[in-house]
Amino acid sequence: MSSPSPPLLPTYSPHGSPVDVDERASPIHNLLKPSPRGSPSWVEKHGKNMPLSRKEKEDDPISTKPSRGINLRAATIIPIWIALSSTVIIYNKYLYSKEHLNFPYPIFITSYHLGCAALGTRVLRLTTNLMDGLDEVPMTREVYVKRIIPIGILFSGSLILSNSAYLTLSVSFIQMLKAFTPVSIVLISAIFKIQALNPKLLATVVLISVGCALSAYGELHFELLGFLFQTSAVVFESSRLVMIQVLLQGLKMDPLVSLHYYAPVCSIINACFLPFTEGLKPFREIPRIGLFIMSTNALAAFGLNVAAVFLISAAGGLTLTLAGVFKDILLITASVVFFGSPVTLVQVFGYSLALSGLMIYKNAAAKK
């Protein structure tokens, strides 16, 4: 599974779902503690609309407001999120690479990750209060069919295409191409008349576009198929984020709640492509790869989604932006160190331009 990025709009989760920061600031030490609010005994005693007492508010992790220790929590969770995000991407590249594990089956891996995520969110639902956000989502069959499934289809396409790009492109080049995502979002929003273009926004689009073009021009091992996969993945992901803004207005879904709904449908969609693409080959190769690699790979991907919940709670928009930029730079450096991916001065200059445009775009979005 591709690594979820920090939100393009600070009020959105790494999966693009609206998040109420206050409601997501539950203390870590309360994770395994059942929430009194909403339980059958509490409702029977107080009624559904009975306000919480002061003591109940202090004990209830959902109603708890961010404490003064939030900076410490941010300082803890941001490195964990960066480490997990980088691990997932490097791990997948290591898995796909012919020079390493040589397991070139991205459709199987994305289906496997999503299947594990669907199972994992349901286990968390039964054992922790991390999934309490499900109680706040008025999910019906109509909402699921008309809103979740269309977004799930775009999410599935984004994951398949982006993971397929790792078969031929370097991690560093892919990270540079991902900087084009805000441009794609702006253009799609303008086409469907969701967001009007203005001179400042156009200047930002041009800056990012020029930077990405220079990054592509400076790539020494350019592969057209991989480039098309990644650019198509950017279009799918941008369309997904735009669709979320249109279809999921009013639904408060943190990353884990989103994953709970999206993972099953995406896993099924991806699995439908398996017979026509990779067939039974990945299943025959699993014994060679081993249970340890397969399980830790899925665990890292799922752990990233859990970390994203606390990241949204602990960090503000600017902090998320800087964390994302630092993570991308770290990934490019890791790609050079671990995989020997060459990075030219033209690419460094181009990516610097793109990052500058990205910072301007996100800061402008944060002020809205």
UniProtKB/TrEMBL annotation:
UniProt organism field: Cutaneotrichosporon cavernicola
Designated name of the protein: Sugar phosphate transporter domain-containing protein
UniProt keyword Membrane, yes or no: yes
Basic and acidic residues composition bias: residue spans: 43-62
Key words of the record: Membrane, Transmembrane, Transmembrane helix
InterPro entries: Sugar_P_trans_dom, TPT_transporter
Annotated membrane topology: Multi-pass membrane protein
Residue ranges of every copy of the Sugar phosphate transporter domain listed in the record: 74-361
Residue ranges of the TM segments: 72-91, 103-124, 144-167, 173-194, 201-218, 259-277, 298-323, 329-361
GO cellular component: membrane
Location, primary (coarse class): membrane
Subcellular localization, as worded in the UniProt entry: Membrane
Lineage: Eukaryota, Fungi, Dikarya, Basidiomycota, Agaricomycotina
